[in-house]
Amino acid sequence: MRQYSPDLTPPWKKPKPVPEVPAEPGLVVEEPGTGFCGAVIRCEAGTVTLEDRFGKHRVFPLEPRGFLLEGRVVTLVRPSASPVRPTRTASGSVAVPGARARVARAGRIYVEGRHDAELVEKVWGDDLRIEGVVVEYLEGVDDLPAIVADFSPGPDARLGVLVDHLVPGTKESRIAESVTSEHALVVGHPYIDIWEAVKPASVGIREWPRVPHGQDWKTGVCRALGWRVANTGEAWQRILDSVRSYKDLEPELLGRVEELIDFVTAPA
């Protein structure tokens, strides 16, 4: 008769069981060995394919205790149901159905103006909630040195700032340079106002009007387009309603916002 040796491993040394989670499309997990984080796009016999926020794909084996889900060790298993093609957020990232907002990070992103904040929220809002990033707005770039000094950026609390019309040699560029550090990043787009970062075709116009120097830009735009000059807020709502996804925005803005999100969410 075959003899079996008893398991003499103390209970406290035995690995604790971990939950098994179906690798459904859109589920966001991390492979701890490489640090690669992405959404499930395909699960086959013995492997799972993940896609990160930049569209890069990696294939990993379905090993026990092989992944982290919201910081907890899990075992991914092949789902029993037929895979469903994941949808995308307005920013182009893979949507995560039913994902809960992460507890807010200490890091922050500041943008110059309420309109800027509303546009960022509309396109990147889902991503920001999953990453736990809060967006606040500056009244003006002149307030930036005081805000940075009060915030005191550090390894676990990075600060990202988006500035309008950041052109070399200007007052805005000098202020940006004065506050930039290892843990504070200031970037800008070339547009006079965030309105210009929305593609004209999306708004239903041929191009953004050129406003003579010295005139209020928003008022000049409304006048040139035949919109009500007295209510630039109404004009902005018209522009914001025309934005449905990242495809309605100019690349110069897209790149800068993505850069800030990566900066404030980077591991310490």
From TrEMBL:
<dbReference type="Pfam" id="PF22845">
    <property type="entry name" value="DUF3097_N"/>
</dbReference>
<dbReference type="InterPro" id="IPR021447">
    <property type="entry name" value="DUF3097_C"/>
</dbReference>
<feature type="domain" description="DUF3097">
    <location>
        <begin position="108"/>
        <end position="265"/>
    </location>
</feature>
<dbReference type="Pfam" id="PF11296">
    <property type="entry name" value="DUF3097_C"/>
</dbReference>
<feature type="region of interest" description="Disordered">
    <location>
        <begin position="1"/>
        <end position="25"/>
    </location>
</feature>
<feature type="domain" description="DUF3097">
    <location>
        <begin position="20"/>
        <end position="79"/>
    </location>
</feature>
<dbReference type="InterPro" id="IPR053883">
    <property type="entry name" value="DUF3097_N"/>
</dbReference>
<protein>
    <submittedName>
        <fullName>DUF3097 domain-containing protein</fullName>
    </submittedName>
</protein>
